[in-house]
Specification:
14% helix, alpha+beta, three-stranded antiparallel β-sheet
Length: 305
């Protein structure tokens, strides 16, 4: 069955890129142009004027708004950003499964799932929207840009809430594979529990004192001399959780440029990808009530030997 609630649909993507949305805050501005420019001062007024002239500012019914539209706090507006030239990411994702409700993609290292920073078109979401001509695609969870492997997408807004509930209720089994330094003298399987909060710089996480909000189950699956392959099962889904937990145990994941410390790339040396793979997903499908299980076809460097 599907949810009876049908969420409002956003405007369709342009060349695979979704519109951004903003619920207008309180403010004294008379026109929408003035309000948007004030809210985003880093974007010049001329750029906002160009967006209005190009029909890139819309209301929640996807109707084009003129620049002199009255500013009304609480109103939902959509806008399309300019997409600068982006360096192509050569590796291509593999689609392992697709039906009227779900799509499962197996992504390479280095490809963001959703737009972030300078990456807008070269993202897994934008690629799949263009490839399947489905503006309703939405990721049900995220994995780091540096991590390879499985990402589950909703293809249908009407059934999306049922699949989101799998993650919220921890009814989906996620397993990762990582290569890291050997951890001797441990009792396996090991559960790492800690409190994770944002650190410095803002994009890093760190462990702090306090009630734990993250948990990872860790177990070695193969030994390669000083490096082992580990099965990692995140019980919770905090940002960079697996990377922080392995680093805190004294076994940072091979190729990690953020933990335990930031490592600046060497222009004279080829970069080694993070040896972390979202390897498998298993769950009972809330629509069909059948068991579904997916496994990545990708391999980590040491695991290839």
């Amino acid at each position: 069955m599907t949810s009876g609630h049908q969420p409002a649909l956003a405007p369709p993507p342009l060349d695979g890129v979704h519109a951004s949305r903003l619920r207008l805050p309180q403010g004294p501005w008379r026109s929408l142009l003035a309000g948007l420019h004030a809210h985003f001062p880093q974007v010049s007024r001329s750029i906002w004027e160009h967006r209005f002239a190009a029909g890139k500012i819309l209301d929640e019914a996807s109707r084009v708004l003129p620049a002199n539209t009255a500013y009304r706090p609480g109103t939902l507006v959509y806008y399309y950003r300019e997409v600068p030239a982006e360096a192509e990411i050569d590796e291509v994702e593999e689609v392992l499964y697709a039906d009227e409700h779900l799509l499962v993609a197996d992504k390479p290292h280095g490809l963001p799932v959703v737009p972030a920073g300078s990456r807008v078109r070269q993202t897994l979401l934008a690629r799949l929207v263009r490839r399947f001509d489905n503006p309703h695609l939405a990721p049900l969870h995220r994995i780091d840009r540096d991590t390879a492997g499985l990402v589950l997408f909703s293809t249908n807004p009407r059934s999306r809430a049922a699949y989101h509930a799998l993650f919220a209720k921890r009814m989906i089994d996620k397993r990762y594979l990582a290569i890291a330094l050997a951890l001797d003298e441990q009792t396996w399987p090991l559960s790492r529990r800690s409190r994770l909060e944002r650190g410095e710089p803002f994009f890093r996480m760190h462990e702090v004192d306090g009630l734990s909000n993250s948990e990872t189950r860790i177990e070695p699956v193969a030994k390669h001399g000083q490096h082992w392959s580990y099965a990692l099962s995140p019980i919770t889904g905090r940002k960079h959780q697996l990377r922080v937990h392995m680093s805190a145990l004294g076994a940072p994941i091979c190729g990690d440029c953020l933990y335990p410390q930031i490592v600046e790339p060497d222009a004279n040396q080829p970069a080694n990808p993070l040896q972390l793979l979202a390897q498998s997903l298993s769950f009972i499908d809330p629509i069909s009530q059948r068991a579904k299980s997916f496994r990545s076809n990708r391999r980590l460097l040491l695991a290839q030997q």
